[in-house]
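Incident log, support desk, overnight shift.

02:14 A customer reports that sequence design results differ from what the structure should imply. Their input is reproduced verbatim below. On-call engineer (initials T.W.) acknowledged and began investigating.
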């Protein structure tokens, strides 16, 4: 008589008695997360479109978290701890750039199968992306009008507009370290777009000419350049992917589409850090 084989085990040591305890799905709220992909059409390809944008918003949430923390540390002259946060944001930006490769598998025909069902919904309305722009110093108060129908979101964005950016705090730190920064760059209307100034360029140039004397400020400058470098690459892949999929059509939210995105390629968050490279 053959003996019965012992029941197969999942893996030695792996717990299966999880009733009433925190498991993987519960910790990540997967029942809610995986129910958030609500299609507005029967198109096979719409799921990809939703997931790409939802994933982007999750990464933007982490970016806002890290940039705000880095800003606080820079303001308190605690640079070493801020560098890990800034480097993490750069790695996230690299992930976001890779996502355009996936979205570009969506052909014009694929997208047109559900585009008309999106109504006025548009990435132009991503408030987290607008907060990231503010954190990096690209302030546009007129963007608040886009969020008039969401008072809480509008209020959060308004607070960020009224707060010194990451770069503003870096410049104020230069002054604390003894650099001669123009007074109107240390206290100003934080809602106004940043404008380059000779005193700021001269301060950064001094640091770059003698990195060993200003090593942590030199490293801060390079972390900022990394952020902007990745941001430029993301914007380029954005416009290229959009043009590949919809050509020069008007955006769903009413923007000029590719023409608007091409204009964004000229945005510079940290102008003096780029300018000084010519004079070194």
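02:41 Re-run completed on a clean worker. Output:
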């Amino acid at each position: 008589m053959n003996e019965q084989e012992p029941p197969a085990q999942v893996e030695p040591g792996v717990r299966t008695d999880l009733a009433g305890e925190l498991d993987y799905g519960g910790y990540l709220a997967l029942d809610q997360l995986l129910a958030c992909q609500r299609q507005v059409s029967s198109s096979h390809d719409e799921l990809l479109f939703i997931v790409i944008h939802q994933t982007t918003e999750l990464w933007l949430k982490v970016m806002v978290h890290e940039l705000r923390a880095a800003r606080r540390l820079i303001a308190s002259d605690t640079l070493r701890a801020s560098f890990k946060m800034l480097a993490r944001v750069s790695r996230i930006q690299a992930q976001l750039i890779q996502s355009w490769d996936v979205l570009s598998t969506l052909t014009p025909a694929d997208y047109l199968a559900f585009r008309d069902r999106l109504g006025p919904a548009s990435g132009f309305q991503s408030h987290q992306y607008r907060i990231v722009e503010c954190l990096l110093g690209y302030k546009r108060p007129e963007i608040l009008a886009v969020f008039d129908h969401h008072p809480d979101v509008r209020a959060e964005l308004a607070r960020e507009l009224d707060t010194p950016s990451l770069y503003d705090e870096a410049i104020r730190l230069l002054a604390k370290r003894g650099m001669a920064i123009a007074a109107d760059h240390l206290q100003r209307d934080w809602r106004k777009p940043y404008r380059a100034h000779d005193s700021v360029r001269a301060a950064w140039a001094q640091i770059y000419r003698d990195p060993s004397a200003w090593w942590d400020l030199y490293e801060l400058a390079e972390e900022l350049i990394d952020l902007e470098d990745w941001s430029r690459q993301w914007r380029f892949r954005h416009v290229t992917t959009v043009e590949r999929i919809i050509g020069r059509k008007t955006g769903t939210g009413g923007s000029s589409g590719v023409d608007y995105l091409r204009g964004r390629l000229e945005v510079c968050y940290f102008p003096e850090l780029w300018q000084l490279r010519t004079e070194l």
